[in-house]
Amino acid sequence: MKLEDVRSYLAHFGRTGLLALQALWAYKIRSLFVIVSVSLGIASLTVIIAAHDGANQKAEELTESFGPDAVLVLGGDIFNRPVGQRTLTLSWSDLKNIRQSLPGTYLVIPLRSVAGKTLRYKNKNWNVARIIGSSANYSEAWNWPLISGRDFTEQDVTRALKVCLIGETVAKALFTKGESPISKTIFVGSIPFTVIGELSYRGYSGGGGSSLDDRIIIPLTTMAQRFGVNRQYFRGLRIKYIDAKNMRANVENLTSYLRKLHNLAPSDPDDFTILTAEEVQQFLSIIKGGLTIFLGVTAVTAMLVGGFVLANLFYLSVSERTLEIGLKRAIGASKGAIIRQFLLEAILLTILGGLLGIALGLALAQALFIFNLIEIRLSLKMFVSALGAAMTVGLIFGLSPARQAADLDPIRALRGDG
After folding, report:
1. Tens of pLDDT, residues 178-187
2. Cβ(386)–Cβ(46) under 8 Å?
């Protein structure tokens, strides 16, 4: 194609675009209806893509933090537990036996939690979400690095010392910026604890929607003495294995061993639940799938409604613009030129609707993120997909009215009876 041909084509396209904009401006209210209806579908699509990408990213982070070499054992069958079934089924005896006799493990720590209490440091108070009881090597077991300080030692646990690790949310709430919490004394209720370690930012929610950073960790023995929890049983076990490549075999061995320790008959169900990084991923996939289906149906429905609104208003526009179409045909405009103009008008409207929809979608996604309902991740794919979907709606639903306009008989159109 010659340079002159390219320039001529661009000039023609520019004139057509200007005519399309003038036509849209002449019917402002009608154009606004189309833009708003299309934007609702694009907003839903934007939330879908941002949430899906955010969920994928968070799944990777959760899997990495959970650890491919680790399992979490919880008391009770959390998936099929009958009402009233005891959930505290893991004992110190289980812990001791697993540490001594289960092959392939190198770290086994217990876990217990109680509802949060008011923390106090000088004149500052904070209602912490959870108090966690654990044992030595908590940070290593949960792949949770410390910003400063140290982890629990066996001596801390054996002597039931009043020491603690704190999450980032707690540190920010009680201490001023730049102030080190290490060696400071905070009160948990009326009990003084010395901060020995500050955990790094985790950035996501745990059970009940509370942030994992909004917690304080104390020795499990101290929790039993000071907060009256059951001294024989605890809620969970965190186990790390030397060989992460054979986790299925590790889980099978652990299951068999726990069933033996708990004297379960072959017909008895497990009275514990074992979670691995694979189960975490599967759970997140179910959530992502449900979210995608729900928002997907919403997005498709909204875009179809927007498309039908566009088509109906363009059919009305054709009937009102028969004189304009007849004049254009009379002075030599081809059917293709008429189709291109109406399609361009439709695409411009849907692009404007797409841009508005992206803005609405981002605002909605941000609101959901603030309330910890979903994770979002912005990407070029989101913008391209949203605008591509908007243009597709314009092409599909604008084509039939454009063809109707092009098929009008010029003579009848000029007489106004097209």
Report:
1. 899 999 999 9
2. yes
